[in-house]
Amino acid sequence: MSVSNPTLITFVIYIAAMVLIGFMAYRSTNNLSDYILGGRSLGSVVTALSAGASDMSGWLLMGLPGAIYMSGLSESWIAIGLIVGAYLNWLFVAGRLRVQTEHNGDALTLPDYFSSRFEDKSGLLRIISAVVILVFFTIYCASGIVAGARLFESTFGMSYETALWAGAAATIAYTFVGGFLAVSWTDTVQATLMIFALILTPIIVLLATGGVDTTFLAIEAKNPDNFNMLKNTTFIGIISLMGWGLGYFGQPHILARFMAADSVKSIANARRISMTWMILCLGGTVAVGFFGIAYFSAHPEVAGPVNENHERVFIELAKLLFNPWIAGVLLSAILAAVMSTLSCQLLVCSSALTEDFYKTFLRKNASQIELVWVGRLMVLVVALIAIAIAANPENRVLGLVSYAWAGFGAAFGPVVLISVIWKGMTRNGALAGILVGAITVIVWKHFELLGLYEIIPGFIFASLAIYFVSKMGAPTAGMVERFDAAEKDYNLNK
Question: Is pTM, for the whole model, over 0.70?
Fold first, then answer.
């Protein structure tokens, strides 16, 4: 496809706006706390939308619509699981984590929180959790870069290698310059763009295919089982898809938004905004993939790119059904999804390297300016490694995301959830939970045991390890005192 000028201009304007926001955030970034956590200053709207945008990466507009297009509504179990998991995360973790991190050394990162919460003087808990972040997030970052490359490749006819760098450059730029505030402010803009695209596109596809009745008849004619939620599924298959919801409890880039909220009082309103946004976006993305079955059945002459790579269904519909200027805006929504998640993943990796390795073990007395610049350098380092992983054009977005999501969900999810609701948890329990969760995911994935998504056994085994190992010891008086103080603070202000 030749470069479409309106689409190209739209992309350039959008990217320029995101980088401009990065430079605006640069003016408000004075120390490491500002760069990593925005000085804990996010209001409910920014907390809600940035949490949503950072969660829903290119997977939302590429991986999931593609899965629905190929298999019908039986793939939508994953959306149901995510909605349930996200709600429970907001309900049980968000407010408590906000106060617990403040009461435990004003922690800026998850490893920092674990280290303070469990009085780990050895540094082992901090190191292991930081290593888990770096391993799984580098894979996660690669998934975002693959999604961005696919977008640039299909929209502008670039080679995959060129598209790889084009898709990553803008995100690296504004994350490097503006840090957490840039990421959160751009996420809010990007979340707005994503919901606009995912409400408008299925409506236009529905009109193009002749309305609801005609569209449903065409989908049924293609394969009646497209409507069957249980098509080609098993009990284990459904549990595996629903199990994605468990991942929310352990995703550092989402949990960072809770930690950065300006107060516990903001959390309840943020929860309502975020869940409304999420339900509309997931409903829209399922509809895009589902209605796309009818459209491409009626127009087989343009179905080639989608049949070749089903993850391009949203991209092709936007290009075929909309004016190039509107198509540019809609395709920018994919870029928004990619950039929003990739930027906060890069930042969390940078935070782990800067706060949990460099400052803790190499330069304890480093100045705030030095730490901010080290953080910026680490953004570049992690980005380059992720680009190297993403260099294989055979990579699929959903496959990369599922592995990283499971890794975090199992390694950190039980530790975070139990640490904010049970004061009897100990340092050894936390350590056992992280190790058992991470190792279970790696082993289960390698051997593909029972066909069950690895996050489920990982989460269960990690939770059991935390409980039984914690019961072998006891928390210190200081740990109990800080937990009770934080819980009292939470109950007074929620």
Answer: yes
